[in-house]
C-alpha cells in the first residue's frame, strides 16, 4: 500500500508547484557583475542662468550713406578712418545726366503753364470747354510735381556728413556706376555716441532675455576690466543667413576714445526671468558641450538609463539642466564611466 501512495504524493507535489503562482523575476546578475554606482535624488529649483555671448562693437549712430539716384560716381573725398565734420561733402555723382533731367522737367513745366493760361482765356471766352480747362490745370500740376522731384534728386546727388564722426567703411571708388540706395560710405560718431555690442542668440536664449536685463562686458582692447551694460534691443526675427537672433548690449561705462568700431567683445547676460532647472554635479555629465550632454539615471534602483539633457549654464560647483530629466527619479553621480544603456547597477550609497 505504501508503495502506491508515495509515488502518488510525489506527483501531486510536482503538479501543485507547476500550477502555483510564478516567482517574481528579479535581476539575475551576480553581485560581481553589477556596476557599483552612487546616486542622488532629483529636484528642480528656480534659477537665473547666465548667457555668454560674443560679437562686434559698434555705436548707436552707425549710419550707411547712399545717393537718392543712381549714376556715375564723380568724387569720393574721404577714406576709411577719416574724421568728418557735420555738413562736409563726402561724395558726389556726375551731374550731367541729372541736370539734364532737371532742365527737361523745368521746360515741361513752362510749357504746361503756357498751355494752362491759353486754355483759361479760351474758357473765359466760352471757346474751350470746362473739361479742357480742367485737363490743362491737371497737366500743369503734374508738370510742377515732376519738376520738384527732379530738383529734389539733384539735391541728393551728393552726400554730406550728417554729424561729426568717423568714416568706418568706403564701399565704392570714383568712376563706378551705382544704383539708387547703393551704400557708399558707413559713418558713426564714436566720440559722442554710445557703444553697443551686437551678438547672436539661439532660440532658447532669446526667449529668456528681456530688454533691460543687466550684462557684464569684457573687451580685449581694455584688458582686466569688466564694464556694466544693459540689453537695449533684441530682434523680433531671425537673421536669414545665420539663423540666430540679434541682441544689442549698450554701455556708457567704456571710454569713448578707447575703442574702435568692429572690435571683438564678450558679454555675460543676466536674464531677469527665472526658469526651473536641475543642478547636477560635473561627474554626472557625459559627452557634454555648452548646450547638450548625456547622463545616466535610474527609476528602479536596478537599471541605468542613458538620457540626453539640455544645459542652461555651467558654474564652478554644478551644471544647470533645464530639460531631459522630467521622467527620472534618481541621477547616477559616480560610476557612469563604466555604464552602458540599460546596464545592471548596484547602489552603494543611500540618497
Question: Could you explain how this protein is built, in words?
Answer:
By secondary structure, the protein is an alpha+beta fold. Among the domains are: 35-48 and 275-347, conserved putative lor/sdh protein from methanococcus maripaludis s2 fold (Beta Barrel); 54-61 and 193-270, Beta Barrel (Elongation Factor Tu (Ef-tu), domain 3); 96-156, Helix Hairpins, CATH 1.10.287.470. The protein has helices at residues 2-19, 96-124, 130-155, 203-208, and strands at 35-41, 44-47, 51-59, 63-66, 71-76, 83-84, 89-93, 158-160, 165-170, 177-178, 183-188, 195-201, 214-219, 222-238, 245-251, 264-270, 275-280, 292-298, 305-314, 319-323, 330-334, 345-347. Strands 2-17-20-19-18-21-1-22 form an 8-stranded mixed beta sheet, with no helix packed on it. A 6-stranded antiparallel barrel has the order 3-12-15-14-13-16. A 4-stranded antiparallel beta sheet has the order 4-11-9-6, with no helix packed on it. Helix 2 packs antiparallel against helix 3. The protein is elongated, with a radius of gyration of 39 Å. The two termini are 62 Å apart.
Amino acid at each position: 500500500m505504501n508503495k502506491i501512495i508515495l509515488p502518488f504524493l510525489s506527483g501531486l507535489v510536482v503538479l501543485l508547484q507547476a500550477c502555483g503562482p510564478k516567482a517574481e523575476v528579479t535581476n539575475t546578475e551576480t553581485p560581481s557583475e553589477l556596476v557599483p554606482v552612487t546616486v542622488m535624488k532629483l529636484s528642480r529649483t528656480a534659477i537665473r542662468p547666465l548667457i555668454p555671448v560674443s560679437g562686434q562693437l559698434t555705436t548707436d549712430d552707425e549710419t550707411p550713406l547712399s545717393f537718392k539716384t543712381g549714376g556715375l560716381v564723380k568724387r569720393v573725398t574721404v577714406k576709411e578712418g577719416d574724421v568728418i565734420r557735420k555738413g562736409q561733402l563726402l561724395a558726389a555723382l556726375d551731374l550731367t545726366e541729372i541736370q539734364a533731367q532737371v532742365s527737361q522737367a523745368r521746360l515741361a513745366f513752362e510749357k504746361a503753364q503756357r498751355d494752362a493760361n491759353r486754355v483759361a482765356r479760351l474758357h473765359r471766352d466760352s471757346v474751350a470747354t470746362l473739361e479742357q480747362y480742367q485737363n490743362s490745370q491737371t497737366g500743369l500740376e503734374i508738370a510742377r510735381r515732376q519738376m520738384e522731384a527732379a530738383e529734389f534728386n539733384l539735391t541728393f546727388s551728393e552726400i554730406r556728413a550728417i554729424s561729426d564722426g568717423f568714416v568706418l567703411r568706403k564701399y565704392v571708388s570714383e568712376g563706378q556706376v551705382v544704383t539708387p540706395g547703393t551704400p557708399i560710405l558707413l559713418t558713426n560718431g564714436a566720440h559722442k555716441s554710445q557703444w553697443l555690442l551686437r551678438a547672436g542668440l539661439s532660440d532658447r536664449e532669446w526667449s529668456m532675455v528681456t530688454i533691460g536685463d543687466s550684462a557684464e562686458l569684457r573687451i580685449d582692447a581694455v584688458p582686466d576690466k569688466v564694464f556694466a551694460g544693459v540689453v537695449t534691443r533684441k530682434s523680433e526675427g531671425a537673421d536669414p543667413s545665420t539663423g540666430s537672433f540679434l541682441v544689442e548690449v549698450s554701455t556708457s561705462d567704456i571710454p569713448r576714445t578707447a575703442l574702435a568700431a568692429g572690435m571683438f567683445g564678450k558679454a555675460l547676460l543676466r536674464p531677469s526671468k527665472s526658469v526651473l532647472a536641475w543642478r547636477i554635479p560635473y561627474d554626472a555629465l557625459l559627452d557634454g558641450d555648452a548646450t547638450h550632454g548625456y547622463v545616466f539615471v535610474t527609476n528602479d534602483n536596478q537599471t541605468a538609463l542613458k538620457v540626453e539633457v539640455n544645459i542652461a549654464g555651467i558654474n564652478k560647483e554644478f551644471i544647470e539642466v533645464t530639460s531631459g530629466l522630467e521622467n527620472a527619479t534618481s541621477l547616477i553621480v559616480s560610476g557612469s564611466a563604466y555604464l552602458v544603456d540599460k546596464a545592471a547597477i548596484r547602489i552603494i550609497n543611500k540618497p
